[in-house]
Amino acid sequence: MTPSAPSPLDSASLTLATAAARAAAARKAEDVVVYDLHVVSSFCDAFVVCHGTNRRQVSAIAQGVIDELRTHNVRPIGVEGLDAGRWVLIDFGDIVVHVFDEPMRGFYDLDGLWGDAPRLAIDLEAPPKPAAPAV
After folding, report:
1. pTM, to two decimals
2. How far is 111 from 82, CA to CA, in rounded Å?
3. How far is residue 74's CA from residue 33's CA, in Å, rounded to a whole number?
4. CA angle 61-33-97, nearest 5°?
């Protein structure tokens, strides 16, 4: 029997992961990567991993992600590390966002740990927002 290809990431998770990645990129996050974990993990569908160059930027990136997903009516289940700004973990349920400072990203090496998971090709440039309808 030939193994079947894994099913694609569901559209809601892909939309949220894309929004989170774009929000991080808008705050100048570096090396933004989205891992499709839904086939290799049971606890979430996707990881968004990125880093900033200093603690203040890490916190700003994380807050930007939280603010952007709030526009999608999604609030985090939990946020850890926002005040310290070394590694901020934002749990949105189906997706988890990790914002590191550069040394912490290398130390914890989530990219190596989850390297077998497919990377999603995300266009980090947000499409233009449609104009609000005239009232």
Report:
1. 0.84
2. 21
3. 21
4. 50
φ, ψ of residue 120 in degrees (nearest 5):
-90, 135
Between 28 and 121, whose confidence is greater? Answer: 28
* CATH entry 2.40.37.10 includes domain 29-120: no
CB atoms within 10 A of CB 43: 9
Domain ranges of the chain: 29-120
The H-or-E segment that residue 77 falls in is none
In terms of average pLDDT, the best of 76-80, 104-108, 123-127 is: 76-80
pLDDT at residue 45 in the model: 85
Cβ neighbours of residue 133 closer than 8 Å, sequence gap 6 or more: none
Q: Does residue 14 contact residue 34 with C-beta atoms inside 8 Å?
A: no
